[in-house]
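note to self: dont lose this again. the chain is below, predicted strucutre after it. 152 aa total, dont forget to put it in the shared folder this time
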Amino acid sequence: MKNFLTLLIVIMSCGTFAGTDEEFRERLKFLYGESDIYESFFYELKNALVAKDIGKVANFNEYPIRVNFDGDTKYYKNKNEFIKNYKNIITSEMLERVEKQTFGDLFANSYGMHIGLGDIWFTGYCIGGDPEDPCKKVKINVTSYNVIHVKK
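---
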């Protein structure tokens, strides 16, 4: 519980929750220079999670993917390892928060964005080779999962 509260304090002090979709688009433009690709990624990821399309969810990850459990961190090297452990990573509690998540209520800071209480973090990386516009192409991936249990 102490680690969760510390994480929550750090999260709240380092970024903002925008509120509306348009406010969040403006926040992303300020942070990353654009918003459309992040919005598309969010909806694709959310839809795959809700549909329980395990293979599609696994394709969104940057491997090795970091998964933080209570008191333990594991790295899954590839898609097959992630799929094998999917039910331990994507809990019903996490999925409930994902289903309720709206685009405008995502959290964003300079490290990326997260769904829920920090359950799923994702970010974009510049992959363009154009010296005039190094971020002409951006690749977005899930960078970590935090398996968080909240007492109700």
